[in-house]
Write a structure and sequence with these properties.
Elements: H1 17-25, H2 29-39, H3 46-56
Amino acid sequence: MSRKLVRPRQGRMFAGVCIGLAQRFGMSAGLVRLLFLLSLLLPGTQVIIYLALWIIMPNEDRHPVAGY
């Protein structure tokens, strides 16, 4: 079963991007959040990427369709 890249409705801290990435790649949500926060100490476009993912990643369906 493939994992979709979606922003889950449960377990969000802000927009659900970090938990969505964690679920997609089979990682701990806390680890992804920590890595994101640590990346903010480095120069770069982390915030812009986060905002882009927030816009691009769809919300998880409230009532998933069976078989999909």
